[in-house]
Amino acid sequence: MEIMSRLTNVVKETSESGMDSCPDDIGTVEEVPEDTILSRQTSVNLVPFIGQRFVSQDAAYEFYCSFAKQCGFSIRRHRTRGKDGVGRGITRRDFTCHRGGYPQIKASDDGKLQRNRKSSRCGCQAYMRIVKRADFDVPEWRITGFSNIHNHELLKSNEVQLLPAYCTMSADEKSRICMYAKAGMSVRQMLRLMELEKGVKLGCLPFTEIDVRNLLQSFRNVNRDNDAIDLLEMCKCKKDNDPNFKYNFHIDANKRLEQIAWSYASSIQSYEAFGDSIIFDTTHRLDAYDMILGIWIGVDNHGTNCFFGCVLLRDENTESFSWALKTFLEFMDGKAPETILTDQNMWLKEAISVEMPRTKHAFCIWHIIAKFSDWFSVPLGSQYDKWKAEFLRLYGLQSVEDFEVGWRDMVDAYGVHGNKHIISLFALRTFWALPYLRCYFFAGMTSTFQSESINAYIQRVLSAQSLDNFVEQVAAAVEFKEPGPRQKMQRKVHKISLKTGSPIESHAATVLTPYAFSKLQEELVLAPQYASLMVDETYFIVRIHTDMDGGCKVIWIPHDEFISCSCCLFEFSGILCRHVLRVLSTNNCFHIPDRYLPVRWRDVSTSLTKPFQTFTSEEHAEKVQLLQSMVSTLLTESVETEERLDVACDQVADVLSRIKEFPRPGHGCDDIGYNSPPDSLILPEVEDSDGFVHGFADGNSHEITLGKMKERRLRDGMNTFRKRRRCSVPCCGQYGHDATDCPMMEGGDLNGDGLGFL
């Protein structure tokens, strides 16, 4: 209180000194030519130029906003090319002057009064255009168009700050205002103190007294004394309605909520299947309540972000993070993830080492790269882009030795020996550099391409602003785009496209989800560009066909169905690499061993996770393959309409009831795991790149158009599936007919090709 009293006295004395409002520093900007305006900038880095790069749209927007403020105008987001969540997402963005375009005339309804408010738009042509590029597999935004020619007067420095775009407060400023309000300071005292802290003249803050009063009113609208009670009551109510909902909390001696964490039943179920690799994001705060928001998220088998849990923490320290991690493990029955990605937070790093000692901890690379502009653009100057490209090259290297040698060469070449950020990055290299992380599974979440989708997912959670309804709002946000079973089945049916004609590709297409299959397919397409050189029976060197040395080392033991590559792509992502696929194809292996099609990337409907009882393995395998094909066709046809799906569910339920009436086999039978033999694959139909549907039986390929596939319809209100008969005629052996109607028997000709449509 003594310090605050002294601080208040200083504010009063300063306020009574009679300082005038800030003079006009810029003058009449509109009367000078454009090149003079640009030359007056305090830093050349504030002048947009063609080819300038940014890590994100937001970074480009903030940069252009700073430039516009110095020139005397504000900006707004204009046209885009592309759409979030569709294809490649947004690939182009235009920012224009706030007076660009013309006002739209709104049709007025009869009898309704319209506000006669004049628009400020006058068709100004000033703009900045950015386009998304992906050099070195890292997405960046570059300026491709820029014009600073205005057809209106530009504002003076003391006028431009009154534009709505600049009447904003940062998170730090809101936190300070909240702190000052708790200390009992008046609004004018707050403004004067912040002017002194920032070194600006009276009235030159980017917000006004009215903005501060509105902010304080929004704080008062929240009954802070009842925050904890209301939130805990909501959690208790949800727990009563859903016994699988879990939550935990801690309240201090003053009955103030210190920590609270919760997880939904669906989140716990998702974690059981996809909790091997997770992200714990703690980079956001709820400013109105002065609490850190932590979110646990992961990636499911369809490459979709899934929500695992949420936590609110009053303090950012090791003790708080330890409580959060311990509570999360309690929610998940003590199951710790194999790997966890976080921000570069040392308190969190220490907490993870204690609470999850067997979990590999790594830093999100996109959080690190986002700081490069602030860290290195000034000391490196014009060499910044070249240095960044070299950093990304080192980041993606295969071996630790190459990385460390290359890092030393990079430090010497750019003279950054004493840079504190370079020293820190190298000291923590095992937490972010891929050569140190490739032997751990991260489900593809280290890719910078995942950053935008993950950030968009987190923003959905952040859209919940009211703490007393926060739990329900988060639930609604994370469930907004969760696909149901029908959407997942339709996604599998319609998006698989064969490109190589390889039996390996066909086999994988029936097991993996479309997301995982697309990743494997990328490797399959590139595999023919590599040469496979046998060193001995189990050791191969695989390298690009134009290289004379180097390459990856592949170990393959056929009788054990064991294969491994030095690039560690399978260990890192769960997807076989092009080097392994090249060795398999050149050695006449036509299917991927079951262990290298991980359950976490499989389509749930086609995953075979349990061994089957068998009497004669060959006969049993054929029947299982036949059942697989029929089930896949059932799914394909059933999801076409709601009526088909209802009939299919009813009929399958009846069939299961009948099956369960039969006695189970005795324990004397051998248990074997089913693996598809390469010479007798029967695959459900998948679409190739030419629009045909392929089926495979005994190694022979048959084509059926998609139109013929859809000609199968319901009969008498229910789906009927004919038993697939196998022909016993020699040299035929096809499914779909028997010896009585075999096409090879027509005219007594047994020398035909025996091919027929299924």
Automatic annotation (TrEMBL):
Primary place of residence? nucleus
**Lineage top rank: taxon:** Eukaryota
Keywords, A to Z, come to: Metal-binding, Nucleus, Zinc, Zinc-finger
Chain ranges of the SWIM-type domain: 540-588
| GO MF terms held by the record | zinc ion binding
Under Pfam families, the record lists:
FAR1, HTH_FAR1, MULE, SWIM
Query: By its UniProt entry, which SMART domains does this protein fall under?
Result: ZnF_PMZ
Localization per record: Nucleus
UniProt cross-references to InterPro entries, sorted A to Z: FAR1_DNA_bnd_dom, FHY3/FAR1, HTH_FAR1-11-like, MULE_transposase_dom, Znf_PMZ, Znf_SWIM
Q: Which GO terms describe its cellular component?
A: nucleus
Q: What is this protein called?
A: Protein FAR1-RELATED SEQUENCE
What is the species listed in this Swiss-Prot or TrEMBL entry? Salix dunnii
